[in-house]
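User: Need the bound-state model for arginine:
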Amino acid sequence: MAQKDNDKVNPLWGGRFKDSADDLMQTINASINIDRHMAKQDITGSIAHVIMLGACEIITKAEAEAITNGLQQIAVEIEAGDFEFFQEREDIHMHVEARLTELIGSVAGKLHTARSRNDQVATDFRLWLREALDGQIAMVRKLQQALVLRAEEYADAILPGLTHLQTAQPVTFGHHLLAYVEMLDRDAGRLFDARKRLNECPLGAAALAGTAFAIDRQQTSDALGFDQPMANSLDAVSSRDFALEALSAAVICAVNLSRLADEMVYWTATGIGFGTFSDKFSTGSSIMPQKRNPDAAELVRAKTGRITGAFQALVLVLKGLPLAYSKDMQEDKEPVMDAFSTLDLCLRVMCALVGDIQMNREKMALAAGGGFATATDLADWLVREAGKTFREAHHISGSIVKLAEEQGVDLTQLSLEQMQSIESEIRGQVFDILSPQNSAKSRTSYGGTAPDQVVYQINKWKERLT
Ligand code: ARG
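Assistant: Bound-state model below.
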């Protein structure tokens, strides 16, 4: 980073200082490497402020126009990458004001009338996060769409449903994918709630107490797309719960993604082989030629730690912090920005992985037939057809499983006589319900795994997501 102004005391508060800051002081104090990512929001906020100052005749219309033009030029410079950042200019607010002075002279000094960096940074950060939340809500929608497409393709593909990672009951792969569509919908809801609650404007709270200038806070709030100005100036400059709330929604979303990522690792594991990633999303090993590793899914699984860490970091910054502003709060942006760019990457990667994975219907169906996965269907049949209570039926079915296990066969491979040796009321018709396909097909209760139900839900989602 270039050096400038170093021989002078700080131009913003030089009046009461004799010496410039120590290098170390500058190093710990500077936030420009982080808040340069809010340059756009900073300028947007400043333009809204200066237009309001003009409209309220706190500065002249001509001054407001000169400042606005200068700010617009700075926005162009930043966008083009022509803007220089200097360590000793601490943060983005000081950078913009210093450049504005270079461009339009001392009238730039009027920009900061009736404003402080405290309300300014709170406004910038809310604007930044609002945009990030909108972006991530859209990404979650994209991932839901990708999942619905694959769910449609595999609406009737059977795989073993697991509990405790042990074979439980056959389910359809479409149904399994739709479970994630539901989870992601709640993630979008949480991100949206965070967005709604953060959308109030701190600008005009000034340092902490409001201002004696006759400003119009409604005007700046409207200009910046906020729902209303914040009602308490202390709260406006001190609150970062909006960032915590957004982070907590990001954490939960990342946790949900990590579960899908983990299942992808499982589906593609040696010895399971339900799914394969193409070469585009597989990695090899530098030593073992046979390898085909699911690194992208593993990394999505792992990045949950980083996003959760961001939440922890901000919680601890804010814990016990008195009103109003303390410089501690400058540590708020880095974790939030890192968490949201990480979440963005994870969501984009998951969209790609969901589209890429190829499932092996035969292997899944074969596995779904093993592990006595239809023992519950047998118990249900005994309730329906032989008048047993579910407890009795559970016991009988368990004894039949035990017999099959001793014989080293599946339930379908037992003879009717063998079954009848345990329960005389069993009839040949029972074999109809013992296949995993029929088991899944029979689970037609609302929200159940039957292909009919899956198709019903797919149609609902298709309508909702367009
Ligand atoms: N860079 C600061 C931040 O991010 C801006 C606010 C500075 N305010 C102050 N009172 N020093 O929090």
